[in-house]
Specification:
The chain is mainly alpha-helical and 88 residues long. The protein contains 4 helices and 2 strands; from the N terminus they run E-E-H-H-H-H. It has one domain: BFD-like [2Fe-2S]-binding domain (Arc Repressor Mutant, subunit A), CATH 1.10.10.1100. Bound molecules: FE2/S2 (inorganic) cluster.
Length: 88
């Protein structure tokens, strides 16, 4: 059984090299609709040092993908092999 990850608090430090918190990274992802670590780094500097925090940034990018509108509908369509919008 796959473990369910708990949401890390916004005030916890994510990138120690650049002193950026989880909340600041989440806000940066939302601000520019970031889809990669590079886009996050450009926006808030997180990940711009030793790169140790890149897996955590990837986790937040995945978290954001799961929260985007329509994600559940697209996932359900894929799982049930129906097309989104019912055109086919
Ligand atoms: S901890 Fe984020 S770049 Fe080093």
């Amino acid at each position: 059984m796959e473990a369910v990850k708990r949401r890390v608090r916004d005030d916890k430090m994510l990138c120690y090299c650049k002193s950026v918190t989880y909340g600041e990274v989440r806000a940066s992802i939302r601000a520019v609709n970031a889809r990669s670590v590079l886009e996050v780094t450009r926006e808030c500097d997180a990940g711009g040092g030793c790169r140790t925090c890149h897996p955590e940034i990837e986790d937040l990018l995945e978290e954001a993908r799961m929260e985007r509108p329509g994600m559940l509908r697209r996932l359900w369509a894929r799982l049930t092999r129906h097309t989104v919008g019912g055109d086919a």
